[in-house]
Each structure stands twice: as structure tokens, then as C-alpha cells.
Amino acid sequence: MMYQAIDLKQWTYCPRVFYYQRCLPRIRPTTYLMEAGTAEGKTAEGREKRRSLQTYGLTAGTRHFNVPLRSDVLGLTGEADLVIETQQANRVEWIPVDYKLSRKVGKHFKLQLTAYAMMLEEMHAVKVQRAFIYLIPLRKATAVNITTRLRNELSTALKNMRLTETRQQMPPPTAQLRKCQSCEFRRFCNDIAI
Ligand code: SF4
Fold first, then answer.
1. What does the pLDDT look like over 62-104, one tens digit per residue?
2. Ligand 1 — pocket residues by CB below 6 A?
3. Which of 80, 82, 111, 167 has the fewest Cβ atoms surrounding its Cβ within 10 A?
């Protein structure tokens, strides 16, 4: 059962979003926000090519765009918006970067980046210790440390995602009901009161 890093992001945002996506894939609508996010991502890549690496606190490095990633150990695939390859203290460092149409760094974004980091580790036999989220509206890069805690949360999430899909069992709604107000699945969740 292979998952994409984006499945992990959705699970962390609200497990039901993952459930609708994986167990009832035909009902998923395409929203304005999703289309806007894709378009902004393409524009961000163009801007990135003109931007200095100092945005990430680096003086030198090579940028790789739209990097396909895979881990057979985790059962994960994905595509990083950007991976920076740089030399730090006589060793090569790989730093994944993701562009987000958001003004804040949510836990779901951190888990997605942790997935990219762990896939890079398996592919290149290196340790990835940090990543960046580039918040497009703020034009700001925020560092994310790939901690043991994030790695453990990723493993737990993957285990629960597999259980949910195997059992075809709808998870409870998110405890943060403010998320439901702009959720594309709002009309399918009839058991929440907002
Ligand atoms: S409406 Fe709320 S509970 Fe339902 S999928 Fe969306 S965020 Fe989750």
C-alpha cells in the first residue's frame, strides 16, 4: 500500500480528508483554492530561480526543482517543489523546500516535509536534518527541523492511514472545527455542528 506525501499531509490536517480521498475518490471536488495553489506554485518556481540562496541562509548550492522521491521502507512517494544540494563542513547536505499558499506553518506541512526528508535519506544514504517551508503570501522561508518527534509522528500516521484504508472506516471529524468552514468536504460531514 503506497502513499503519497500529500496523503500524509491530508491525514494530519484532518483524517477524514484522507478517508474521502482514498476510500471515496470519486466524490472529491476541485476547489478554487486547490487550483490557485497549483498556479501559485508554478509562479513561485519562477521567482525561486531569481532568488538568492540567502533566503535559506546559504551562500552556495544547487537547486533541483520538482524532484521525484520514493521510499520503499516507508511505502511513500512524492515530489518536492525544490531540493537544495549544498556542501556543509565537508559533507553534502540535501534540504527539501515546499512552497505553500499560506501565512503560517501548520503541523500538516511539517509532516509533508518530514516525509520528503526521510525519502531523501533513503535515496541518498544521508541524514536530512532540516527543511524549509516557503510561505508565498509572506515571501518568507521558515526552517523546519526534522526532529525525532516528527519522524515518530510520521510513522504513527502511516500506520493509522493503513488501518483506516484497510478497514474502510471513516475516522472521527477534526477537533478543530474552524477547519471545516473552508473544507471542500463540508457537505459530506453531516455529523459536525458549525
Ligand atoms: S468538514 Fe471538517 S471533519 Fe469533514 S473532512 Fe472537512 S475538516 Fe474534516
1. 999 999 999 999 999 999 999 999 997 788 999 999 999 999 9
2. 14, 16-17, 173-174, 179-180, 183, 185-186, 189, 192
3. 167
CA distance 171 to 59: 46
Q: Ligand 1, closest atom to CA 15?
A: 8
Question: How many C-beta atoms surround the C-beta of residue 122 within 10 A?
Answer: 15
**Spatial distance between the Cα atoms of 21 and 17, rounded to a whole number of angstroms:** 6
Cα-to-centroid distance, 18 and ligand 1 (Å): 10
**In the chain, what are the domain boundaries?**
3-52+61-188
**Ligand 1 atom having least distance to the Cα of 14:** 8
Q: What is the pTM of this model?
A: 0.90
Hunting for cell 502511516 — which residue is that?
A: 158
Q: How far is the CA of 65 from the centre of ligand 1 (A)?
A: 32
**Top-level CATH class of 3-52+61-188?**
alpha beta
